[in-house]
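User: I'm writing a tutorial on reading structure tokens. Could you give me a worked example: one chain, its sequence, then its tokens, then a sentence or two explaining what the tokens reveal?
Assistant: Sure. Here is the example chain.
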Amino acid sequence: MEAFHLAAQATKQEQATFYKKNYLNLALGLVAFVVLEAVFLRIEPLVSFMLSLTQGYLWLVLLGGTYIAQKMAYNNTSLSKQYLGYFLYIVACFSEFRY
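And here are its predicted structure tokens:
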């Protein structure tokens, strides 16, 4: 596995590469959020299910899903698992944001 160091201690080229990758991931996450919102809001059973999560203690399931997705995204075992966690986190944040 590659050694990590602070971006402030990296060369200018490494910093530029880091910032490009970082902001590309941010931009793709925002695009995914907007696309998912547009798609999910057109699926009536999904909207009903998400609204049901706001009643009683079911919102804890939503918070738990967000927590699990965030842990997956922060885990450094595999890049594919991190991206899956990032995607699930976007979906979970959509659910919390919208309802």
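What the tokens reveal: The CA atoms of residues 40 and 46 lie 7 Å apart. The mean pLDDT is 81.
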